[in-house]
Design a protein that fits this description.
The complex is a heterodimer of chains A (425) and B (294).
Chain A (H helix, E strand, L loop, with lengths): L8 H46 L4 E10 L15 H12 L6 H8 L5 H12 L7 E7 L2 H7 L16 H12 L3 E5 L1 H5 L12 H32 L4 H14 L3 H15 L7 H25 L3 H9 L4 H30 L2 H5 L20 H9 L5 H31 L4
Antiparallel strand pairs in A: 1-2, 1-3
Helix pairs in contact in A: 1-16, 2-4, 8-11, 8-13, 8-15, 9-11, 10-11, 11-13, 12-13, 13-16, 15-16
Chain B lengths: L36 E2 L8 E10 L2 E11 L4 E5 L6 H7 L10 E9 L2 E2 L7 H7 E4 L10 H11 L6 H14 L3 H4 L12 H13 L5 E5 L7 H14 L4 E5 L3 H7 L2 E6 L2 E7 H6 L4 H7 L5
Parallel strand pairs in B: 1-11, 4-9, 4-10, 7-8, 8-9
Antiparallel strand pairs in B: 2-3, 2-5, 5-6, 10-11
Helix pairs in contact in B: 3-4, 3-6, 4-6, 6-7
The chains are: A mainly alpha (425), B alpha/beta (294).
The structure holds adenosine-5'-diphosphate and magnesium ion.
Chain lengths: 425, 294
């Protein structure tokens, strides 16, 4: 016996349309999933290419020298003034006695980095007892040697098209056969500033520059932005002036950042005479860049605090400022922090305005304060990407990895603080 | 209650007896009449409101309302939605100040102090005239901190023990102490709706106000929670003057001693609650309480 339940015309009508409704839903879901898949693919591709290009930069090739710190080199009072480049050369010649011609000797000395002499100087000035002894010392290899060892140079192309000629190739192979050439973790990269020599170039100068610049930008834009948002949202009278200010802030958020760089150049450097190329001016410019974002996010966060909380506070006799500081601000804080982090992440990646104020200068020294000339990570990436040497290619990718790591660290901190402040109501 | 007060001190404006007013209880005032009928004034009032007009920008939301709030009484304000009950209630502790477009005219006095006088500070005023809102709105803080907030900001206590005492007595008066004494440091927002509303009442009475304003305090609560809050209101009357806005006429009948009926910004009728519900003197009041509109 069949028992079909009675269906009203309304139910039938609804059922007829159901399939279409579910299909729309399915289609939407599929579109969403494919969008995410595409985005993830690009992300994986991006990370894959950066990491595969950059990870080799975290290792650097070193050559072992048997240096005999001969008394004859250290005759003067000042140990540091001794002829250390000569000592390096002499060591190399003694390791390859059959190299005699002037030209070959020059080619031979090109295998080690100019940094080797400084390394020896550092060792001797630190420990003068080394004089008179013979030491096995690992020194940086030249970037071309490094590229060859890392397999970035093809040995089989014609000699004239190679940066390492056949003789040098033979010497390198001889060193390798004796275990006198090896790859080690590249501490230099994390501790030194920029350099014309790729094997000596490091990211620390730019990282310090970024830290100082962001510190200035954060220290200024967060309090100013939060205060401005609170004033505009809670205290400002509702009149034409506030509307005008609001429109202008929204417009400023959309102004290309290079304009802020020009403004910084004109006002901070030319008018106020602040030092060029410094994190101080960079931070001020980035403050201008991020302020609109922070103010807009701050106002949105304040708006989202339920009015009932304000009424509760006022109703019990809290003054307006007490209402804001005791109740509204704590609830708006997570949103404000999110806005600040978005602003700071933007500031971290900002390059154009910093070019305008001279932070693109080639700076070897690690900045020690906010008034020392410095560059920042994205500018460093730009500079390296622009350099012709093959060895800078991997440095560029490594610097990008550092920048992304910096960004993730900042975002991680932000999420931590946001969760700490977040409360339910 | 002070019944020996000199009656001759009480203002009794003649405008109440206009052309449309009536002399006998049998005849109803015509629906077109906008004069307040009944007894808007009491002896020895706590609050006095005279010729109050409230405007939102150009729109008149309260039109010439004069009424007293007595001591130790519950005054209920009823009327159809949008008739201005909340607007009027919020004049009594100047909560309307927060609405930029709102303008209040007339005389509102709390114990002879004109609360709209420019010299009056709203902070102490709102401590004397507390408010409980339609939707329970505890702070997203612990139960203890919710109640302790008022005494703290007004500097009513000098040490932690006093504060704890105030919190305990306020919660006890609000009938919540036994339910929450073991979890004072849990968030107030974790309580049930009815408990939250009683927490809000405890928060309001912690600063020892003279008047408590309640704007539909039970409209978001279930019947059992409503019954508890109504019971609480009856107890609180012994210490405070209470003005309650409600859209439930049974509630007005249960908790209040006097009832005021508002209609489109006008105060139509005021009188003892039992009289208003049994023998309204204005046609509009009768129409409303018999459910003809509203
Ligand atoms: N903030 C405001 N701005 C403008 N008009 C308002 C505002 N609040 C209330 N009104 C108007 O004032 C009148 C009375 O409102 P209200 O006091 O909330 O009525 P009730 O509480 O009796 O329902 C209504 O017409 C309402 O539209
Ligand atoms: Mg209302």
């Amino acid at each position: 016996m069949q028992n079909t339940p009675q269906q009203s015309p309304i139910t039938l009508r609804i059922n007829a349309g159901l399939k279409k409704r579910y299909n729309t839903e399915k289609r939407f879901k599929r579109m969403g999933i494919s969008a995410i898949v595409i985005a993830m693919t690009f992300l994986v591709f991006l990370f894959g290419s950066i990491i595969s290009n950059g990870y080799t930069a975290f290792q650097q090739t070193y050559i072992q020298l048997d240096v005999s710190f001969d008394q004859t080199f250290f005759t003067g009072e000042n140990l540091a003034a001794a002829n250390f480049p000569g000592l390096v050369k002499k060591t190399l010649y003694s390791m390859f006695p059959d190299v005699t011609s002037r030209n070959d000797k020059k080619l031979l000395t090109q295998l080690v980095s100019s940094n080797a002499a400084f390394r020896l100087m550092g060792m001797v000035t630190k420990d003068p007892k080394l004089i008179g002894t013979t030491q096995k010392i690992w020194v940086l290899a030249d970037d071309d040697v490094d590229m060859l060892i890392k397999g970035h140079y093809d040995r089989n192309v014609a000699e004239s098209n190679r940066r390492i000629n056949d003789k040098q190739l033979a010497w390198i192979d001889a060193l390798a056969a004796n275990g006198k050439i090896t790859k080690k973790f590249n501490t230099q990269f994390f501790t030194s500033g920029d350099s014309r020599e790729p094997e000596q170039a490091g990211i620390w100068g730019a990282t310090r520059g970024s830290i100082y610049t962001l510190f200035i930008a954060l220290a200024l834009s967060f309090p100013i932005g939060v205060a401005a948002a609170i004033y505009l949202e809670e205290f400002a009278p509702n009149n034409g002036w506030t509307d005008l200010i609001e429109i202008n802030i929204n417009n400023l958020a959309a102004v290309p950042s290079i304009i802020f760089g020009l403004l910084g150049l004109a006002i901070f450097i030319n008018f106020w005479g602040m030092p060029r190329s410094t994190p101080l001016v960079g931070g001020l410019v980035l403050t201008l860049v991020t302020l609109p974002t922070i103010i807009i996010a701050g106002r949105a966060a304040l708006k989202s605090v339920p009015p009932s909380i304000r009424e509760a506070a006022l109703g019990i006799g809290a003054s307006k400022i007490q209402m804001v500081t005791h109740h509204v601000l704590p609830l708006a804080m997570p949103g404000m922090l999110t806005g600040t982090i978005i602003g700071m992440a933007r500031a971290l990646g900002e390059t154009a305005p910093l070019l305008m104020i001279g932070m693109i200068a080639f700076i070897v020294d690690i900045p020690g304060s906010v008034t020392d000339p410095a560059t920042v990570l994205p500018v460093q990436i730009f500079l390296w990407a622009d350099s012709p040497e093959r060895a800078f290619t991997e440095k560029t990718s490594a610097a990008i990895i550092m920048l992304l790591a910096f960004l993730m660290l900042m975002n991680g901190l932000a999420v931590y603080f946001r969760n700490k402040f977040e409360r339910k109501w | 209650m002070d019944l020996t007060a000199d009656m001759t001190n009480q203002p009794f404006p003649t405008q109440l007896f206009g052309d449309d007013a009536i002399d006998t209880a049998e005849e109803k005032a015509k629906p077109s009449s906008r004069q307040t009928v009944g007894d808007p004034f009491v002896e020895n009032p706590r609050m006095i409101c005279r010729d109050v007009y409230v405007y939102y920008a150009e729109k008149c939301a309260i039109n010439n309302v004069s009424i007293d709030v007595g001591r130790n009484e519950v005054l209920a304000m009823i009327g159809p939605s949008g008739c201005g009950k909340s607007t009027f209630l919020r004049c009594l502790n100047r909560m309307n100040d927060t609405v930029g477009t709102c303008r209040v005219e007339g005389d509102i006095r709390l114990d002879d102090m004109n609360i709209y006088d420019p010299s009056v500070d709203v902070v102490p005023l709102r401590a004397s005239v507390g408010m409980v809102f339609q939707k329970p709105n505890p702070f997203p803080k612990s139960i203890f901190d919710n109640v302790a907030y008022g005494p703290k900001i007004h500097g009513l206590v000098s040490n932690k023990t006093e504060l704890a005492e105030i919190v305990e007595t306020s919660l006890t008066k609000a009938g919540l102490w036994n339910e929450v004494k073991d979890r004072l440091h849990e968030p107030g927002t974790g309580l049930s709706g009815g408990q939250q509303q009683r927490l809000c009442i405890a928060r309001a009475i912690a600063v020892s106000p003279e008047v408590i304003l309640m704007d539909e305090p039970c409209s978001a609560l279930d019947p059992i929670a409503t019954a508890k809050v109504e019971e609480l209101i009856a107890e609180l009357r012994e210490q405070f003057s209470i003005v309650i806005v409600t859209h439930a006429m049974q509630q007005a009948a249960r908790v209040s001693q006097r009832t005021a009926y508002f209609h489109l910004g006008d105060l139509i009728e005021v009188g003892p609650t039992d009289r208003i519900f049994t023998n309204p003197r204005h046609q509009l009041t009768e129409d409303y309480i018999t459910g003809r509109f509203g």
